[in-house]
Design brief:
The complex is a heterotrimer of chains A (312), B (259) and C (324).
Chain A (H helix, E strand, L loop, with lengths): L2 H32 L6 H23 L4 H29 L9 H23 L16 E4 L2 E3 L1 H23 L1 H11 L1 H6 L4 H23 L9 H16 L4 H26 L4 H5 L1 H13 L11
Antiparallel strand pairs in A: 1-2
Helix pairs in contact in A: 1-5, 1-6, 1-8, 1-9, 1-10, 2-3, 2-4, 2-8, 2-9, 3-8, 5-6, 9-10, 9-12
Chain B lengths: L3 E12 L2 E12 L3 E5 L6 H9 L6 E6 L2 E2 L5 H7 L1 E4 L11 H11 L15 H14 L14 H14 L4 E5 L7 H14 L4 E5 L3 H7 L2 E6 L2 E6 L1 H6 L1 H8 L14
Helix pairs in contact in B: 3-4, 3-5, 4-5
Chain C lengths: L15 H19 L2 H26 L8 H16 L5 H23 L4 H21 L1 E2 L3 E2 L4 E2 L15 H24 L1 H18 L4 H27 L1 E2 L6 H14 L5 H20 L4 H14 L3 H6 L7
Antiparallel strand pairs in C: 1-2, 3-4
Classes of the chains: A mainly alpha (312), B alpha/beta (259), C mainly alpha (324).
């Protein structure tokens, strides 16, 4: 097995891991701060991708620009549009529906968000059709880049990894260096205290949810040129995100980061190696087993996750 | 019996830099009511949690009926005869008082992997449970759902449940917490009837209760035990008065009016 | 406290619930006589899924364990029948027994890992495990033509004891109704037994139950296994009904559907989930006949039920003065 091939898969794994982290960060914050089980996170990923794809179509048609640079700019604009649209949607559903559910049990959360997920899937089907939409890579990022002399790697993947890392750094700064971040951290360990400080807890929750929605949408849109957009893409990554959070511990951003990268690499390498080792026509399906085995192992030794912040 | 029911040796529990229990040594003799007192933050709750098995000590050991139970899981300690009541009421809200106590009695009545006959048809469990409830004063409220009972009744139910497991040692964590004076009096009367039948480790804030009942008192301050003696000696111990009460020294000298 | 009558499923007197139950039973009994093949198929499907819903209620309503992976047993039961058929074993007794046993073993393995977690983790982990089995079913092919995403067929329904020929739909239907009644009775006894008492107490206050001397992990594991076994049997019956099993039955959306059936019908009642299943399947058949986008209606409906419908259909039927 060539070293280059493995190295490429590892890089792909890191890239996938960063995308996973965007999902996991939002979800673990929502779990940790609002104690809210949110099954619609995958739908936000999907809707973000749809909004982005449609924005790009519309922009391309409306402006008629076709130089590579212009098309790349349109792509970036479409990404931003998609994220914004999803953030707004997220804020709306949080204020309109979820806010009323926080007082309920986890089962209530699960069922209500499940209902919303079913609704969004149909909604997307009606609005965008059942056929997958292919989103082209921005022209400037089509040609591979030489990262080390002699070794080429997809420049698009590099770009989104870079964006992802920028977001990670931004999140870190937000959470640990700003006042909002302090409130978020405080809210994660002691809800009553934060309310007692006179902070409008409702607004904080909406903000956290919108942030999570935006991150999910970003991950969704950026991944679309690599896969395609269709109803159902959110579910699979959401389940993986759950696994990340279980391994990383609810409420722990650090844990989510480490677990995301680990799982991203394991999943990618697993999909790549396992089929040829096991010799079935099992394909990618069985490759995912590696993740679940890892999860089972973690559960066996540390049921609250590897990095769960100690709750009082 | 001269061997203590419970021996705590050098029990230490740390939470990061905070030392909640610092090398605590303590013993409870069979038939003794040994009270543990101390200001807030002294480490009483941590001690009880370690004895119950919910917290694992960093150092030291716990010996119960001659057996080292330091690493024994919670449920096995109960089966050995160590029963506890909780400071913050911990019953089964959706069960009646009778079913709550019957659940406790059931725990020592063989295994409960019985899937067919109704639990309520076990007459011996019901008889035992209603007898305990009568004795503790909840006889008339047997069929009331626990969630519909008052706070004072909850405190009694807590103890009734602990008693139903035929314990050797009762670990009572502030049984009179939140109770008014009349209810507290009744509780004192009831606990007095328990003395000699069971070894009791009583954690309490209410000095009336402590001084009416205790055979010996241990005082915890800042995680460490600073004194253990009979009540009269503790009452006059300078170290205790200083550490515990400061200028409220006279509450330690209130005389209990014996019934 | 007034005497509760076990013949009336623990109620004090004959009330609206019992009318509904009797009515439902009556309908199920006359469907093969007055209904056509399609209606009977739907009715049988309701009965089979109701069994799984009841088994889930044991875990959820009485045990407080929110399993988002119960579809794994629907699948395990079905696949056992399918694999045995592929291997040439058509004996109904063997097939059903194997389905139950293997589902119980599956529940033991999964439960052993999953029951270490609580709350939110438990929900997510059961979902993930069920999905893992979906991937396995999707990926593993048996022989050249079977398995994988195409599922497994059943050439003929497995006869039971050589007597009951389930290729006659009415026979299968009545058999399923009988099994459902048995499941309800067994579940009722289980809930009220000593075992059930421990399980229900642990739902309210696990910490306390442990400190009384119960190894709650083990009790819950056994409950998980019993529930899985019942659902596995239903899975085998389902496979016989459809003469087909596919990975789709293991998909987590199905687990979600099962939860909906329990909650809409009314958790912690055993009968409620049966009603919930009937409503769910009925709506699914009716509305999907009108439009393929029936989820647009159903999704929001579900949200409303969660927000406002406190105890489901069963809660609506039972007398208001009854203690729960």
């Amino acid at each position: 097995m060539s070293f280059l091939l493995i190295a490429e898969q590892v890089l792909n794994g890191v890239q996938f891991g960063i995308m996973l982290f965007l999902m996991a960060a939002g979800l673990t914050l929502i779990f940790g701060i609002m104690d809210f089980v949110n099954l619609t996170h995958g739908s936000l990923y999907m809707l973000g991708a749809f909004f982005g794809a449609k924005s790009l179509e519309w922009l391309a048609a409306a402006t008629g620009w076709n130089s590579p640079t212009a098309q790349t700019i349109l792509f970036v604009v479409a990404v931003i549009a998609g994220v914004l649209a999803t953030v707004v949607l997220g804020a709306i559903i949080e204020r309109g529906i979820f806010r009323r559910l926080y007082a309920g049990s986890h089962l209530d959360h699960v069922l209500a968000t499940f209902g919303l997920l079913l609704f969004f899937n149909e909604f997307a089907k009606i609005l965008f059709g059942s056929e997958p939409i292919d989103v082209p890579k921005p022209p400037l990022l089509i040609k591979p880049i030489e990262i080390i002399p002699g070794i080429n790697y997809s420049s698009y993947r590099l770009a989104i990894t870079a964006v992802g890392i920028a977001v990670v750094i931004g999140l870190y700064v937000l959470i640990s260096r700003t006042r909002i971040g302090m409130l978020i951290r405080a809210g994660a360990s002691n809800r009553e205290m934060v309310t007692g400080l006179g902070i409008n807890i409702n607004r904080l929750y909406t903000l956290v949810f919108a942030l999570g929605a935006g991150l999910a949408a970003l991950a969704g849109i950026m991944t679309t040129p690599l896969t395609s957009v269709q109803v159902g893409i959110g579910e699979e990554i959401m389940i993986l995100t759950f696994v990340v959070i279980v391994i990383g511990g609810i409420g722990s951003i650090r844990g989510a980061f480490i677990a995301s990268i680990a799982i991203g690499i394991i999943d990618t390498i697993g999909r790549f190696l396992l089929p040829s080792w096991l010799g079935y026509t099992a394909g990618p399906a069985l490759a995912s087993m590696a993740i679940y085995l890892a999860m089972a192992a973690v559960l066996f030794f540390r049921p609250s996750g590897l990095f769960a912040p100690g709750r009082g | 019996m001269s061997e203590p029911a419970l021996q705590i040796e050098n029990l230490t529990k740390r939470f990061g830099a905070l030392i909640a229990n610092d090398g605590v040594d303590l013993e409870v003799l069979h038939g003794e009511l040994h009270a543990v007192i101390g200001p807030n933050g002294a480490g009483k709750t941590t001690l009880v949690s370690q004895l119950g098995g919910e917290l694992a000590p960093n150092e030291g050991r716990i010996v119960f009926k001659g057996r080292d139970i330091t690493h024994l899981p919670v449920h096995e300690r109960a089966l050995m005869g160590l029963a506890r009541s909780y400071q913050i009421t911990s019953v089964i809200p959706s069960f009646t008082a009778l079913d709550n106590v019957a659940l406790a009695a059931q725990a020592i009545d063989g295994h409960s992997y019985r899937f067919w006959r109704p639990a309520r048809s076990a007459r011996h469990l019901n008889d035992k449970s209603s007898a305990i409830l009568e004795e503790i004063g909840l006889g008339a409220r047997m069929n009331v759902l626990a969630r519909n009972m008052s706070h004072g009744e909850h405190r009694l139910l807590e103890i009734a449940m602990a008693l139903a497991t035929d314990p050797t040692l009762l670990l009572l964590d502030e049984p009179t917490a939140g109770m008014g004076p009349a209810a507290t009096e009744e509780m004192i009367g009831f606990l007095r009837t328990l003395k000699a039948r069971h070894a009791i480790l009583l954690v309490e804030h209410d000095m009336d209760v402590v001084f009416s009942l205790a055979d010996r008192i241990s005082v915890l301050v800042n995680g460490g035990r600073i004194a253990t003696d009979v009540p009269e000696k503790i009452r006059t111990d300078k170290q205790v008065r200083r550490a515990y009460l400061g200028d409220k020294a006279d509450t330690l000298t209130v005389d209990r009016k014996k019934p | 406290m007034e005497k509760r009558n076990p013949l009336l499923f623990g109620a004090r007197r004959f009330d609206l619930r019992h009318w509904v139950m009797l009515g439902g039973l009556l309908i199920l009994l006359i469907v093969p006589i007055v209904g056509d093949a399609y209606v009977m198929r739907v009715a049988s499907r309701i009965v089979i899924l109701a069994m799984i819903a009841v088994s889930l209620d044991i875990l959820l309503g009485y045990g407080g364990l929110i399993s988002f992976g119960h579809a794994m047993f629907l699948g395990s039961g079905g696949y056992v029948v399918g694999v045995l058929a592929y291997l040439g074993i058509q004996n109904g007794f063997v097939a059903y027994t194997a389905a139950i046993l293997l589902s119980v073993v599956l529940a033991l393995v999964v439960g052993y890992l999953v029951l270490r977690t609580t709350g939110v983790y438990f929900i997510m982990i059961t979902l993930a495990f069920a999905q893992m089995l979906y991937y396995v079913a999707n990926g593993v092919r048996i022989g050249e033509d079977y398995g994988g995403d195409e599922g497994l067929p059943l050439p003929g329904r497995s006869p039971l004891f050589g007597l009951l020929d389930f290729n006659q739909p009415a026979v299968l239907h009545y058999f399923c109704v009988a099994i459902l009644v048995v499941v309800l009775i067994v579940s009722y006894k289980l809930i009220n037994s000593r075992f059930g008492r421990v399980l229900q107490a642990a739902k309210d206050n696990e910490r306390r139950v442990r400190s009384l001397g119960y190894n709650t992990f083990r009790y819950r594991l056994v409950a998980f296994m019993i529930s899985g076994g019942i659902a596995g049997l239903a899975g085998a019956l389902h496979m016989n009904l459809q003469k087909f099993v596919s990975p789709d039955e293991l998909h987590w959306v199905i687990s979600g559907d099962l939860l909906i059936m329990v909650i809409v019908g009314g958790a912690k009642s055993l009968i409620g989930p049966v009603l919930g299943t009937a409503v769910f399947v009925f709506l699914e058949e009716v509305i999907s006949g009108i439009t393929e986008h029936w989820m647009i209606v159903f999704g929001p409906l579900l949200i409303l039920v969660v927000m406002f419908g406190r105890e489901g259909i069963y809660g609506f039927l039972r007398p208001k003065d009854e203690d729960r």
